[in-house]
Amino acid sequence: MKLYNSLSRKAEEIMPIQDGQVGLYTCGPTVYDHVHIGNLRTYINEDILRRTLKANGLKVKHVMNITDIEDKIFARSKETNKPYKELTSHFEKVFLDDVKRVGIDLSESTLVRASEAIEDMQQVIIKIPNKYVAEDGIYFDIAKYPEYGVFVKLDRSHSHHRINNDEYDKEHVADFALWKAKQPDEPSWDFEVDGRNIEGRPGWHIECSAMSAKHLGQPFDIHTGGVDLKFPHHENEVAQSHSASGKKLANYWVHSEHLLVDGKKMSKSLKNFYTLADVIDKGFDPLALRLLVLQAHYRTEAHFTWDNLEAAQNRLNDYRAMAALRWQPRKHLKDASTYILRDIPKQFAAILANDLDTPGALSLLSNIATQLGALDLDSENANRYNNVQDFTKLLEFLDDLLGLKLMNVDDISDEQKDFINQREKAREDKDWTKADELRKQLEEAKIGLNDTDHGVIWYPL
Ligand code: AMP
Ligand code: ZN
Q1: H or E segment at 113?
Q2: By the 8 A CB rule, do 293 and 104 touch?
Q3: What are phi and psi of 367, to 5 degrees?
Q4: Lowest mean pLDDT: which of 36-50, 244-258, 326-340, 367-381?
Q5: Which of 20, 133, 335, 361 lies 20 to 30 A from 62 at CA?
Q6: Domains of the chain
Q7: How far apart (Å, rounded) are the C-alpha atoms in residues 395 and 410?
Q8: What's the rounded Cα separation, in Å, for the pair 241 and 230?
Q9: Å from CA of 220 to ligand 2 middle
């Protein structure tokens, strides 16, 4: 399996540290507000990476942090007059709901809250030789760390600057806060450093260094995040972890490109963002957003427009119509359909193993949907294969790989099937009024009908 590694700036074959097993770390959300759909793009791509590793035979140990201690959280807590814990536990729930709706599966992942890993962070800070204590906290001294700058070429002339803000200027190198001295109205912890207690709280960057190594070891295999995290966040993670232990943090770094609106990065600060609630309010399925994301390769910028989302929704509807065929087995099997069903899983796994070629995987899926729509499935052809069984297996495989929940397309009721038969009868009798009436009733129940050469096929609307 190949992935583009931001460290080496080329696509590389993945060679896990432990045979057959991959340690995967994802920078998680800061839980002070709703995430926007740009953030969701990154999390969806990371979910596809996890699924692809599994489909290619690797066991995945996935860890993601939940940032519940950070500048923006305390600012929002002051603004809204809400205790910060109330804020973070509410938005953690909202986040977990949102990711579930867009088909992200965290059921086997380890989620770690920053507030529960303070000691782990302190232990890393203690081991960093090139740190110094200032009046507002403990800093990483860039001047004493010549390897700084693995992801981006940096102007080091400003290294005497000190930055207390977690998300600082992307242009200049600056000493960054490992630990921030206590501020009024902020939670704080004791921290014994060089014989003195520096009461305060961790900076943001140290969180991922501590949690990833604790749960995955150091080095571990793959570290992911959006491209904007390369600098300063990932640069700082690499520097801290390496400085503290002399070891590399992770072997492969995978960065997902941005979702844009009108040519600009979707972001809270530009106020050009939409949330999943906006998508749902406009009548779209959250999985249409997932499909919109998968239509673009993770290393290219993707443009969000409502028209693009509508096109993705239509594509999702086509896939669901394909999934409904499993409830509509027929005779007249052509051998080709058997071949298609048996061979596809390997093809999908291979396409995605090529640096997560999701557009390629979806074009294969669309091809299959078209072919199966034309071919028909046959459950009664027991002499060679049971096609409905094969097809169901294929849908399960696709759900595991792409997370589009095609197995959720349910059969219609006996009464609805009877309506379809009655409509057929009415058409034979040329009773068009009755046929139309029955079609309308089915449409109201969100069932569409397609009159084909081999009979009527229903599909979910
Ligand atoms: P943040 O809450 O800003 O740390 O972002 C959470 C994740 O979303 C990080 O991996 C970011 O890199 C990523 N991200 C932020 N904005 C966008 C965007 N417009 N498109 C894609 N990913 C983004
Ligand atoms: Zn991180």
Answers
A1: strand 110-113
A2: no
A3: -60, -45
A4: 326-340
A5: 361
A6: 2-126+207-256 (3.40.50.620), 278-409 (1.10.730), 412-461 (no CATH)
A7: 13
A8: 15
A9: 14
* 27 within ligand 1 shell (Cβ under 6 A): yes
For ligand 1, pick from 26, 40, 42 the residue to mutate: most ligand atoms within 8 Å of CB: 42
* Ligand 1 proximity of 39 Cβ (cutoff 6 Å): yes
Give me the residue label for tokens 């009548």: 283
**368 CA distance to ligand 1 centroid (A)?**
33
- For residue 267, the ligand closest to its alpha carbon is 1
Measured in angstroms, how far is the CA atom of residue 127 from the centroid of ligand 1?
30
- Share in percent of the chain as helix, strand, coil (round to 5): 45, 20, 35
Spatial separation of the C-alpha atoms in residues 345 and 5, rounded to whole Å: 26
pTM score: 0.94
How far apart CA 295 and CA 312 sit, in angstroms, is 8
pLDDT band at residue 379 under the 50/70/90 scheme: very low
Q: Kindly give the interhelix angle for 414-428 and 432-444, rounded to the nearest 10 degrees.
A: 160
